[in-house]
């Protein structure tokens, strides 16, 4: 049952002549518009995943920067899924390989809070939030040192800050949202 019949059924039987040509024509026009909107909504709902995107696979390719418009649909879907899998991960090995591919030698340590039975004397007494922090040690980065200078720095600024915007930006854009990364450079050690 399409929207045309639903719209006609909504008309009060006494006040309106449901079978009049004017009512039927208007219900047909409105029903067709609502049917088309429902079809587009279903297509948009299916496009949430590339497997069922259908003709909206073009949007996935545009967002991911893929140009496969001349290829068959199964190939296009596979290319989109491969690109999605290549753009992010939540594991430390993924970030280690990502940094290695960019030319950095890093080591990532996950902090953990002190726990009886697993921690030892001398371990840091971190709070519960520490499990969401990574310490990223960068051995051979191109860190820039920003040194405290009178007239340029403010009270409370660190005396020396090391930063490498390439690796830090890469991590900030791809890391899990709940994870905080602290960067340490060989120059600091």
Detailed description of the structure:
With 189 residues, the chain is of the alpha+beta class. It has 3 domains: 1-46; 54-87, no CATH class; 92-185, no CATH class. Helix content is 40%, strand content 13%. It is built from 6 helices and 5 strands; from the N terminus they run H-H-H-H-H-E-E-E-E-H-E. The chain has helices at residues 3-10, 21-46, 57-64, 73-86, 92-101, 165-174; strands spanning 106-110, 133-138, 144-147, 160-163, 180-185. The strands form 2 sheets. A 3-stranded mixed sheet has the order 1-2-5, covered by helices on one side. A two-stranded antiparallel sheet has the order 3-4. Helix 1 packs across helix 2 and helix 3 runs parallel beside helix 4 (73-86). The longest helix has 26 residues, at 21-46. The protein is elongated, with a radius of gyration of 29 Å. The mean pLDDT is 78.
Classification by helices and strands: alpha+beta
- Helical amount among residues, as a percent range? 40-55%
The DSSP helix count reads: 6
Oligomer: single chain
Rg, nearest Å: 29 Å
* Largest sheet features: 3 strands, mixed
Trace the largest sheet across and list its strands.
1-2-5
Distance between the termini: 73 Å
Poorly predicted segments: none
- What is the arithmetic mean of pLDDT? 78
Q: Give the overall shape, derived from the CA principal axes.
A: elongated
Number of strands: 5
The amount of beta strand, in percent, is: 5-15%
Topology order in helix (H) and strand (E) letters: HHHHHEEEEHE
How many domains comprise the coordinates? 3
